[in-house]
Model the fold of this input.
Amino acid sequence: MNFILPKLSYEFNELEPYIDAQTMEIHHDKHHATYVKKLNEALEKHPDLFKKQINEILKNIKSVPEEIRQTVINHGGGHSNHTLFWEILAKNKTKISKELSDDINKKFGSFEDFKKKFSEVSASRFGSGWSWLVLHNEELEIVSTPNQDSPLMNNQIPILGLDVWEHAYYLKYQNKRPEYIEAFWNVVNWEKVSENFKTAKH
Done:
């Protein structure tokens, strides 16, 4: 079966004023849809890959035929990254689990220190890419990836991700990426992030 564009659990305007409806609509219905379309087109040459989940494909990216590997990184990564991104956004305030909170405090000193470091990494990504909170070798880490590269390709399990491509924020924030990053913290679905952490940990 072909990969499909996931539905959002909220309306385009329900993350306002932090992320505007027009950006959400274009981001989901145009950008993400294009990644899905081009991923499916690439895999038509190797239909056995349709039997696998996209995250499994990315974890084993070196086993993907070389002729389509970069396309799968670009568009399969775009599909996987955005799928997680939509899931970790919420219109309502949510609470972080004690387990994740304790691990963040242990690793980064405090939740505020974690937010500061994550925001700094997000702001300093040159060009297009993502910033992530990942689990790697049982440890939380903050990492950044270029373009649509997935942490899964580096044996890292993404827990939380922030899209810092300009298409994610330019209509509202123009070149003021730090303002977009600050707004992001108001719409994080900490229940989903905590669930991701629990799944990865156990």
Notes: The longest helix spans residues 21-43.
